[in-house]
Write a structure and sequence with these properties.
162 residues
Amino acid sequence: MQIEQKRKTTSPLLFDEIICAIVFGSMPCLLVLEFSGVEGLVSFFEGITPPDHLIYYFSLLTLLHSIVWAISKYSLSLSDSSRTLKYRLHTLSYQIGFNLVGLYRAMAGSLPFIAVPILIYDSTSGNITKAIFMLVLSIASLLVAYWLTYWQQKTAPRIKEF
């Protein structure tokens, strides 16, 4: 009984993440393509592609965010000061995680928009490898967004009662 209930809650969340990825990633690409053509879309992708050090930074930020969540969720706070510090860190991490979800949703939606035309129109071996890598990265981004959203809902900071 409990397994069936868990499936009911995770499936709609994954579906919601896919819809958000389309809205935040694919739709902007479609609008750029419609109004600026292929050259505009290529220029758009070149403009939004971050340098490697920013990719490392956001990966590290996601890892740190996960560590703060784990500490907040599974550590015992014996004193009021440590409880307050843990609560403040968790509240800050919650806001950071909220913004990271948007980043991963945009990546999950925009990368297939790049990969599919590459596979259709320019299917050389090097481009096929790049397109497959983009599709794998898109799925990974979708899973990270799903995971962040799931834990964000599960561990949202609670309002303290007086």
